[in-house]
Amino acid sequence: MDALKHLPEATILSLPEQVDPYRHDESHLVGPSPLAVVKPHGPGALRELVRLARAEGFGLVARGAGTGKAGGCVPMERSVIVDMGEYPGAIQVSHANMTLTAPASAMLKDVKAAALDQGLFYPPDPNSWDQCAFGGSLATNAGGPCACKYGMTRHWVLSLDALMDDGNVHTFGISTVKNNAGPNLAQLLVGSEGIFGIILGATVRVIPKPRQILTLLLPVSDWHTLLDLPAVLVSAGYLPSAFEFWDPAVLKVMREHGPEEARRMPGEALALLEFDDPGCHEDEFMEGLLEVLGDEAEHLQTATDARQREGLWAVRRMTSVVLKEQYPKKVSEDIVVPRSQVRAFFEGVAQLPLITYGHLGDGNLHVNFLAAGEMPSEALEHHLTDLFKLCLRLGGTLTGEHGIGLAKRDAFLTLMDPYQVEAVRRLKHALDPSGIFNPGKVI
After folding, report:
1. Domains of the chain, each with CATH number or no CATH
2. pLDDT, tens only, 23-38
């Protein structure tokens, strides 16, 4: 694209073989070829990009590592991909403030490792934690197993830097927990999927690294006995740092096609629980937990060392990959319902052709229609609409952690509260009046 030839502080990719990989993320969606891919190296490139986008009428689609699952970084017509992978900046940790500051270009695994190296802990851990960019995790409000106890990415963000419609970089928030000077605009940008501006970096809270971790496998002969367990545990004062599960159908696929550790997994269905409370290795903690679990604890297994723990988590991280390999045309949705409604959810979907695994501890369930590729499109859409309506009726929502992007845009516009949809549209117009940031996504 001629207008970008003299862009300062940037690498420009424009050849078909260079831009083609940017047409998709990890969703099933593929967009048109972008006009170009820009890798900014400084604020000069950003200012000029905004000026050109407004003058030439093209969109700016921010991209991290491309691991999103909702089509959020898929280009639309007349779009330029802004690849933030080479944007400068270093990871910095402050013990005095208990904060960590990192650029959008940093990999999330390096952010988490930098905290651990200082004896600190940054909890957000999406399934792609070892592959995704920090900026992408901010833009999508990434979750993961630890959200059961520690919440989503937004719960940890204190301030962030973002490129806005005026072409300047603005800092929203401050690097401390007390900031009550008007509405929190940093939180507005977290999870906004790039429709208001482009996130360049952030300062997040960190906490002392847990000193003990207790990892448990809970096999059950009747998987329905797991459905009330998250609420039962929490009511008894046991808040797991993770509570994952596989239903019988998913566990069968993992045993047949997953890694070696999966082939040895017991039970008709299985839960993976983790606790990081002080004293969780003590007899008193385990005795109380066994009392709460009751008969379900009969076959409870404890990970005996770090290697075994990592093996169990590798199986969990591989679940989505194995299912995709075996059923390449499957459709997966990451719906969410409150803990207290998990049983009602499964009763409501009993007639739908789906299998389930995921974050049982916080009601964020990954439901998979394995035969989606063989279904008439009308039948699949009907099933998805029934699924989404059930979640909303139970007090949940369309997505727990993957976001709306392009994949769930129609469902969001159709099923969500019209007032809220219009409010997002007005915010979009106020912050991005030219409509250049990630056009065609979310709203």
Report:
1. 2-86 (3.30.43.10), 92-208 (3.30.465.10), 211-325 (3.30.70.2190), 327-432 (3.30.70.2740)
2. 999 998 999 999 999 9
